[in-house]
Amino acid sequence: MLPATLHAPPERLTPGEILRQSADLGDLAGLAALLDCMPDWVMILNEQRQIIFGNQALRAFVGEPAGGNLLGKRPGELLDCQQAGVAPAGCGTSEACRTCGAVNAILGALDGKSVVHECRISNTTIDAYDLRIQASPFRWQGSHYALVIAVDISDEKRRQVLERIFFHDLLNTAGNLQGLSELIRTNPASVAEFSQDLHETAETLVNEIRSQHLLLAAERNELPVKFSPTESQPLLESVAQSYRHHSVAKGKTIAIAPAPAPFTIATDATLLHRVLSNLLKNALEASSPGATIELGAAESADRFVFWCHNSGAIPRPIQLQLFQRSFSTKGPGRGVGTYSIRLLTERYLGGKVSFVSEPTTGTRFELSFSKNAGVGSTGLPPHRGKS
Description:
Elements: H1 15-24, H2 29-36, E1 41-45, E2 51-54, H3 56-62, H4 75-78, H5 101-110, E3 115-122, E4 128-140, E5 143-152, H6 154-186, H7 191-219, E6 228-231, H8 232-243, E7 253-256, E8 264-267, H9 269-285, E9 292-299, E10 303-310, H10 316-319, H11 337-348, E11 352-358, E12 362-370
Parallel strand pairs: 7-9
Antiparallel strand pairs: 1-2, 1-5, 3-4, 4-5, 6-8, 9-10, 10-12, 11-12
Helix pairs in contact: 6-7, 8-9, 9-11
């Protein structure tokens, strides 16, 4: 009985059949030599989406000069995609694969079409790949294949995000700052009236710049972390207070859930504050006036948990892409919020991020830290970055 699938067909060929197909391509020695000259990753996939050829660039990436470990794998399995292990039939068969540009481009090519899609893959070590996938139909000796070229566009995506933020968001904030200063300049008596707005706008501008600097350092593995004892309740109060007068909180209530017993966790307080602030800001932006957004923390025998809850629900298609870099409901080039939450929490703070979102219960994001992993005692995070 075949494993279930929630998207692409689950069937696979046996290792022997894969080797036979790979050997059949031996007659294409000239083509293989040409593909080996290409700097981008090039794959030939069979109708089961399994790799039967990978060019020199791809073999070098996986550290296999002969390419033996490529054969029979699907692209997501080769790149250690998180979703590849979610469904019993592997890459292409989980629910989240419905939104994957790679598998959809490959399916299109196997259907006889030339297709180009963008693909964002997060692997199990918190790295992310932004790829442009070009898939074309390829027929050889009576069998249908897909010729797939994967171009790394990670730098392009980072640049788009930075351009969007620095040339749009920051200019908007700076424009607000300029407007307030002009009001005060033309009416000095209004200083008291606008001083709080002026302070909050300037603080927003600085925080936007700091957030981008922090994200870039985190992705380059250059983010130093400093673990020290941090009390849960004052941390939550500080996060809540930083947004109580923010424009996104207008008409909304930020509440701190009563804690049975506040605790002390060994963590980098600055990074954890940033992560919780991102969670709170996202929840505020997703909530309507009159809503209550709740922050909380709890300790169990083996874990520390911080959480943020709001009454709204996230549509399922958005849930499937939520932690991908460059994906956002706010428009192209804005997808750094939830991605940075996961990056900072899992790579640098040693925790796990999860969420549950239902129309009846709302949306709850959790940051969970295992005491056994050393976090919360005297241990160090799994990734310290450069000091």
